[in-house]
């Protein structure tokens, strides 16, 4: 830094001379403040609003913008002092005077009342990076969500941290039409905005409304670093950014703030076109060593599922009676058991909340009466097994999100090699640690197959593949559901073993069985069940979904047809997943497509980055089958 310049009124020309002499426009920190990324021949800022820049070409020229900013810092104070550059861009001003060793008395002294109020509200001892677990009920939350929490104390007690402010970044949604929602979200049609809310709102919305666990990671940032993050957040809210679900999303902008708060961090440079919230958690907490403490806030359903297993069948019936307002049910049990029954009745009522964590008037009345009963009972936390920490759900231990799979195998059409690429996120038989154990989520997943005679087929391309299996439990009857949208090869499904084609070359010249790509959309709902929940035998799930499928191609008439999907998932240990599945389709009588598919897969996770898988598939109606072995690499 240059020696301290004090007791003078600074002029633009002198400031710009110091900027040139210090090569400040080349500073990586200046680039972080403005969100500059180096492109092929120039720079480009991520900010999409003109109000963020003083220079006409400030979004692409860091030097021009720095000179114009310095000039704005010495402009006279306007009638509204909050509009002065020092008030609008306090993070830039703090960096500028600190780096050049300048005395703030040499600049105008506007009263920045709006920023001061904002900064005072976010005054904190420390800051946390919080991950809200994966949620299938809303497209924007399929990948999880992250936000910042400003900690006014070191406590983790809910009643003491409920008022702590949080900051999240999300899309300003302008259309709820499913088509436009998906299109705008994928291609930047929404603007992003920072939102500050008390932590109690996040608890109500996530843990009670959407039934998502919260994982809070306290970070080892200093007080001055947190203050600079607050200044940068104020600046960020003065403009707008185009919001992209897969890249410039809820987590990406928070990484920008962390880079500004902690000089030397390089977080956003590690991402190409997809930014998954769970990856940013690993990056911030593990790879950069910023995490110092973990606090877990389980969702209402998570608490309920764990603790209902501690009750006998008789006690469970008392829970249901009490949750419906029959207060006399508590008289049939004593001591700690009564405490546990009342506690579970409270959770049962909370499970009736809407997606914002709000209860109907009658449910609020029941809840208040149960809380009054609990006041005279002992603390249920003394019940063995009451407190729990599901370390297997910790997002830090999950496999990496992007996956490439290399396969080789033998089918009724000959030997083949296959390449699959899945940008996100998780297959049902993958290692479940760190993820929702009974879900599948894939976007833009594709498989290309090469047969031994050189024939290349697009085996499958899935624009989306969502499967959420929520097991039923005492007092819980959640629906499981699936939706798929994509294109697949028709070769396996139209093969007929009885025709005795010796190889694919003879097969593909048959007019009736041309290699065709079949477009399809599928939706199904049903139920799933854990036969051995909380058993030492490992986890297991049985599921059944019924629904419909829309299919068609250039060589076949489009059909809307009933479909069924049934399966079993078994994990004897956390690293081994076995999946057996049946799919049935009720095609029209004259359809050449096979109607029943049976498949199985065994997945062995070697590390977080590597897994081995073997699979088998058959369409028995047409005597088609295939078996293959695969190596899955996660990154």
Give the strand content. Answer: 25-35%
Strand order of the largest sheet: 10-11-13-14-16-17-18-19-20-21-22-23
Q: Can you give the mean pLDDT?
A: 91
Uncertain ranges: 1-5
Helical stretch tally: 18
Strand segment tally: 23
Query: Structural class from helices and strands?
Result: alpha+beta
Largest sheet: 12 strands, antiparallel, barrel
Helix content: 25-40%
The Cα radius of gyration reads 29 Å
Tertiary shape? globular
Separation of the first and last Cα atoms: 40 Å
Notes on the structure:
This protein is of the alpha+beta class and 635 residues long. Strands 10-11-13-14-16-17-18-19-20-21-22-23 form a twelve-stranded antiparallel beta barrel. The longest helix has 16 residues, at 335-350. The model is unreliable at 1-5 (pLDDT under 50).
Looking at this protein, list some descriptive labels.
635 residues; alpha+beta; 12-stranded antiparallel beta barrel; 7-stranded antiparallel β-sheet; 23 strands; 27% helix; globular
List the SSEs and their pairings:
Layout: H1 12-22, H2 28-34, E1 36-38, E2 43-45, H3 62-73, H4 85-88, H5 90-100, H6 113-121, E3 126-132, E4 145-151, H7 158-161, E5 165-172, H8 178-187, E6 190-198, H9 199-209, E7 214-219, H10 223-236, E8 241-243, H11 250-261, H12 277-287, E9 291-297, H13 300-308, H14 313-323, H15 335-350, H16 361-374, E10 403-411, E11 414-422, E12 424-426, E13 439-451, E14 456-468, E15 471-472, E16 480-489, H17 491-494, H18 504-507, E17 517-529, E18 539-553, E19 556-573, E20 576-585, E21 596-605, E22 610-619, E23 624-634
Parallel strand pairs: 15-17
Antiparallel strand pairs: 1-2, 3-4, 3-7, 4-5, 5-6, 6-8, 7-9, 10-11, 10-23, 11-13, 12-13, 13-14, 14-16, 16-17, 17-18, 18-19, 19-20, 20-21, 21-22, 22-23
